[in-house]
Design goal:
Layout lengths: L2 H5 L7 E4 L5 H11 L26 E6 L2 E10 L9 E9 L8 H15 L4 E7 L3 H9 L3 E12 L2 E11 L13
Parallel strand pairs: 4-5
Antiparallel strand pairs: 1-2, 2-3, 3-4, 5-7, 6-7
The chain binds coenzyme A.
């Protein structure tokens, strides 16, 4: 090791933690900042909406922090609310603030979601992604998700029909996706 290595700044270690109820406004702002027709078929997030007002509970949300600031989140839940499908966990939301994108936050959150799903006894981790969301598709593909189904022209967005893609990760055979470097 030379002297420049010894003096180098330590990497910024991000953390992933469970959400708290008081993260709601921050997570809503991330939804607003990342919403676009090519990444979500939903209506745009409404001003002042309660992030935890619907089916999303704080205990189902992972929050990534970088240098003490919330950089992104990932929400999970059952794919179906049925005991017969309790072994399938679904990623129901993933977003990283524009200023933190491209730095490994999304990959880290997906890796943590794998651990959460395994902790819940899941055999499969699933999600839906729009065909137009090429960034997210690349992320999931590099984490080992495979296409299990395509619903053709399921949404009409921005004047064109867009496919809805069902992706899944087999947790019974998988090694945890590695975060590439620190956040
Ligand atoms: C999709 C999203 C969560 C990715 O988060 P991120 O923190 O930027 O992703 P990472 O930095 O961890 O990158 C992981 C991989 O995603 C892909 N990726 C990330 N940014 C990309 C870009 N601008 N162009 C193409 N691929 C990209 C790459 O495969 C990358 O792996 P690599 O760095 O080894 O090449 C983020 O772009 C986002 O919040 N988008 C808007 C909301 C959204 O689309 N959510 C997903 C809904 S299903």
């Amino acid at each position: 090791m030379d002297s420049s290595d010894a003096e180098a700044e330590p990497p910024s270690l991000g953390v992933v933690r469970s959400a708290r109820a008081d993260d709601g406004p921050t997570l809503h702002r991330i939804d607003v900042a990342t919403f676009a027709e090519d990444v979500s078929p939903a209506v745009p997030p409404q001003p002042g909406a309660d992030f935890f007002g619907g089916r999303v509970r704080p205990e189902d949300v992972l929050v990534a922090e970088v240098n003490g600031a919330v950089a992104g989140y990932l929400a999970v839940g059952p794919h179906y609310p049925l005991a017969s499908s309790a072994h399938v966990v679904q990623i129901r939301g993933l977003a990283v603030t524009p200023e933190h994108q491209g730095k490994g936050v999304g990959r880290r959150l997906v890796g943590e979601a794998v651990e959460v799903a395994r902790g819940r006894g899941a055999r499969r981790l699933t999600l839906h992604v729009l065909a137009s969301n090429e960034t997210a598709r690349r992320l999931y593909g590099s984490c080992g998700f495979v296409v299990e189904g395509v619903q053709r022209e399921q949404f009409h967005l921005g004047g064109r029909y867009v496919d809805d893609i069902l992706l899944a990760l087999d947790l019974t055979t998988l090694r945890t996706p590695q975060a590439r470097g620190d956040l």
